[in-house]
Amino acid sequence: MDVSPRIYRPLLALLVLAVLFTAGRSLSAARSGPQLSEVAGARYRLDAASARSSGARLLPPDVRRAGFRFAPTVAPADRQAFLDAVAASRPEARRLIGLVDGLVDVRIGPTGTPGAIGLTEDGEPGYRVTIDLDLVLARYGARGVQRTVLHELGHVVDHALLTDDVTRAMDAGIPAGVGCEEGVLGACAGRQERFAESFAKWALGDIGVNLEIGYKVPPPSAPLDVWGAPLARLAASG
User: Fold this and answer.
1) What is the pTM of this model?
2) Which residue blocks in 117-180 are alpha helix, DSSP H?
């Protein structure tokens, strides 16, 4: 099975876990522990009362109104492919992404790690998402592009908006993968990757049959609509 993991790499992290694995000899890096900018697992809150009580930042109105920032080097066709992937997701997912897309800088091209098809980097105040569009298309086609884009944006939604209690409950609904491959796949996939994979499946209504991509994370035990109910509620509250 040709597995190309996406990468979530915080710029502020003091320690980065990097492991060589699988047929493509790809690299995987995972966030190691909570970041200083998070409060109870999430950087922002959507309402002033929650921000005050938690001590977290309120998601600014100008960020909510803004959209993705594409690097000048991104070709119009590649920009449209990225936006089309977002548009293919369910309305609740689009709403969540619409809350945080003003925090995201998008780059199209190699991620800087051989074989890796996607990269999300955590900076201040936002995030940088890189998609190796040519590599994804060559390996997995248009369906793979949708899955990769939504996976990376799942990392942004997770870090920006989801508190620890929400992510713990949602992670409990994701079965462990079969086996532990190279310390990062299947049963050894990290919590952030388990969520991002499941977010993409929920957003697209696609559990990934015949799409050999990602971290070998099984779909949630409950139907996707049930598993994603906390996300739908958060989208409605925003």
Assistant:
1) 0.86
2) 133-161, 164-172
